[in-house]
Amino acid sequence: MNATLRHAVAATALAACLAVPVFAAEPPDAQIDFGAFAPSDSGGEFVEVHIRSNLIAMAARLAEKAEPEVAQLIRGLQLIRVNVISLDDKNRAEMEQRVKTIRADLDARGWERIVTVQNPKEDVGVYLKLRGDEAIEGLVVTVIGDAKEAVLVNIVGNLKPEKLAMIGERFHIEHLKKLGPVAEPPKAN
Question: How many structural domains is the chain composed of?
Fold first, then answer.
């Protein structure tokens, strides 16, 4: 093989090796960037939870023996992000605008809005990113509450509605129960 061809093959192989981590580092399509948050000046509640796939896999292994169905659901997750920000006079308008922008982005990207609640006590939007009729790729919940807080949730993964309903049934979470028919757990032989 001549030197030019060897260099071309080597450069192509090097480029392919370098490209793999770039593609792997890209966030999943259902991951939503809410931006960065800071606690309110009034010093109210401020919560940030950001759990990625490696910690989720560890949690699935820990839950395997006691709750195999829960472990199976957890294994399908890639990311969990929860933000709770107390609202005061200084940050309320900015948070309301941010939530409005997030919702408009979700609508533009083809997410399905499955819950809208707007009343004097709360403003809620729940969105799903579906993979056909088989699974949910992403879930986003946005809440501006009269209780003086904003809540933003993003869950990314391979979520089967019947599995979510089963978890809702087991842990008495009414909103999850309504997502699909409850799958019967396997019977012991």
Answer: 1
